[in-house]
Write a structure and sequence with these properties.
27% of the residues lie in helices and 25% in strands. The protein has 393 residues and is of the alpha/beta class. The strands form four sheets. It has an eight-stranded mixed beta sheet. A hairpin with a 5-residue loop joins strand 14 and strand 15. The termini are far apart.
C-alpha cells in the first residue's frame, strides 16, 4: 500500500462500492480513494450471484427514477467504461418484464403504472388475454390484468461490476484486498478503519458498501442497521419449450418468477418467509425447487410438468427489515459514515444512481436525483418508506 490516509475509504468492492468510486473520481480526479474488498474472487458476493434483472416498474417515484437513470447509463456503458481499448459487455437483453396482477394487487399496480407513465416510462396495461399473448405458456391462473415494461430486462451483473471496478482503478482508485474488522471513530466523527491484519487506514469519510455484511460493519462503530443477510436461491431448468425469441421475464403475485434464458432454458426463483438468515450458507438445495417451487410452477405453466433441473446457486439478499428499501446517505449521528445498504434484492439495478448520489453527497454537490426519502434518518425515527401498500417488494 502506498499510503495509509485517504480522502475516502469504501468498504466493499461490489458494484455499489466500485460505482461510487467511479463517480467520485469522475467528479474529482485528484481524490485518493481506497476500495477494500475481502474477497476479490467475489465467490459469495451478491452482485455476481444476482439474476441481473432491471425494471422501471416500481411504485415509488425515486425507485423509478433510479432505474430510468440506469437504463440511460447502459446505453453507453461499454464505451464509458473502456480501459485501454477493452470494453465490458453488459449483455443487456431487453426482453421486458411482465407482472401478473391478481385482485389484491390490481389497483395499486394501476396507480404505479400511471406514475411510471407520468415520469416518461413506457409501460403497458394488459388484459389477461394480453398477458397470455406475451407469455403464451402461462394459463392465466389468478390473473385479472398485467403490466409490461418493454425496456426492462436482464444483463450480466459481473460485467457491470468489472466495468466499474476496472474503470475506477484506471482513474486512480486503489483496490485493496483486505477485511475490515472495525470502523474507527473519535467522538461523532469517523477517522478510518482497522483491518484484520492489524493495520489502520485513515479517512474522515468511510462508506459502508458491505452488502449482506453491512450490519456487522456498522455494529463495530455502534450503528444498528435493520439489515439481515438472507439466503435466496435460483434454479436453472431445461424444458421442451422451443418458441421463437425470448419470452419476457414473468413475475407472479406469489413472488414466484420465471426468466427465459433462450431456447428451453428458464431461471426460476422464489423467496420464502423462512429463508435462512446468516452469512454461513451458500448451498443450493435441489429439494427446495422440487418440494416448494415445482408444484406451484406447474399450476401456472402446465407445460413445465416435465423438465430437467440443470443447476442452481444461492446468494444473499441484504434485507432491510424496516421497509425493504435502500438506506442511502450519511448516518446523522456519525459524521463521515456513509451508507448504501439494505436494497432487499433490487439493489443491482440501482447501482448507477446510488453510486452517483453517494459521491455527490460526499463532495457536497447538489444531488442529480433527490433520494433523501431513503435517508438513514428514517431508521432512527422508525418511519418506514414502503414500495407497496401491501408492504412487500
Amino acid at each position: 500500500m502506498q499510503m495509509t490516509s485517504y480522502d475516502t475509504i469504501i468498504i466493499g468492492g461490489g458494484v455499489m462500492g466500485c460505482a461510487t468510486a467511479y463517480y467520485l473520481l469522475k467528479f474529482d480526479p485528484k481524490l485518493n480513494i481506497a476500495i477494500l474488498e475481502m474477497d476479490p474472487t467475489y465467490e459469495r458476493a451478491s452482485t455476481p450471484l444476482s439474476d441481473g434483472n432491471t425494471r422501471i416498474q416500481f411504485n415509488l417515484k425515486e425507485n423509478i427514477q433510479m432505474s430510468q437513470y440506469g437504463l440511460d447509463v447502459l446505453k453507453t456503458f461499454a464505451d464509458d467504461m473502456a480501459v485501454d481499448g477493452e470494453k465490458p459487455d453488459p449483455a443487456f437483453r431487453q426482453q421486458g418484464n411482465l407482472f401478473v396482477l391478481d385482485e389484491s394487487s390490481r389497483d395499486e399496480s394501476h396507480e404505479g403504472m400511471l406514475l411510471q407513465r407520468s415520469l416518461g416510462c413506457e409501460v403497458e396495461w394488459l388484459t389477461p388475454e394480453g398477458v397470455q399473448k406475451y407469455f403464451p405458456l402461462y394459463n392465466l391462473k389468478g390473473c385479472v390484468a398485467g403490466t409490461f415494461g418493454p425496456h426492462d430486462g436482464t444483463m450480466s451483473p459481473m460485467a457491470i461490476l468489472d466495468g466499474y471496478k476496472k474503470k475506477s482503478i484506471a482513474l486512480g482508485a486503489e483496490y485493496i484486498q483486505a477485511e475490515v474488522i472495525e470502523v474507527l471513530r473519535e467522538g461523532n466523527q469517523v477517522v478510518g478503519v482497522k483491518l484484520s491484519s492489524g493495520e489502520t487506514l485513515n479517512s474522515n469519510i468511510v462508506m459502508n458498501a458491505a452488502g449482506a455484511w453491512a450490519a456487522i460493519i456498522a455494529q463495530t462503530v455502534g450503528v444498528d442497521l435493520p439489515v439481515v443477510p438472507t439466503k435466496r436461491q435460483v434454479t436453472i431448468v431445461e424444458t421442451n419449450y422451443r418458441g421463437d425469441g425470448v419470452l419476457p421475464a414473468l413475475f407472479l403475485p406469489s413472488g414466484l418468477y420465471v426468466i427465459h434464458e433462450g431456447e428451453g432454458l428458464f431461471m426460476v426463483g422464489k423467496s420464502f418467509p423462512d429463508d435462512h438468515i446468516g452469512t454461513d450458507d451458500f448451498i443450493w438445495e435441489r429439494k427446495t425447487f422440487e418440494e416448494r417451487i415445482w408444484h406451484e410452477l406447474v399450476e401456472y405453466i402446465p407445460e413445465f410438468d416435465r423438465l430437467k433441473i440443470l443447476r442452481g446457486w444461492a446468494g444473499l439478499y441484504e434485507v432491510n427489515t424496516l421497509d425493504g428499501n435502500a438506506i442511502l446517505g450519511e448516518w446523522t449521528q456519525l459524521k463521515g459514515f456513509y451508507l448504501a445498504n439494505g436494497f432487499s434484492g433490487h439493489g443491482f439495478q440501482q447501482c448507477h444512481a446510488v453510486g452517483r448520489y453517494i459521491a455527490e453527497l460526499m463532495l457536497g454537490k447538489t444531488p442529480s436525483l433527490d433520494l433523501s426519502i431513503f435517508s438513514p434518518q428514517r431508521i432512527l425515527e422508525n418511519k418506514p418508506v414502503f414500495e407497496s401498500k401491501r408492504k412487500i417488494i
